[in-house]
Amino acid sequence: MEPSSNSGVGPGPLPTSGRSRRSEHRFENRLIVGLDRAAVGGLVLGLALYVLPLWREGRLGWAFFVTLISTLLHIYTSHQRST
Length: 83
Prior knowledge:
Helices cover 70% and strands 0% of the residues. With 83 residues, it is mostly helical. The termini are far apart.
């Protein structure tokens, strides 16, 4: 005899209320907005590292790395905000 799918025993998704889903959506939205602001700050930091007149060995590499990571993060967060 096979167990029925409506037996109510075993793992399964727990029912969530509409309020819980809205709260979850707001948290995700705030997280994306925060990451987007951090990405813009990283772009500004990368630009500042590029134009600093006190270049030491390796600073240009850090500027490139910070700008690259910030650009990729900004692209990702911008696409997440538009969906």
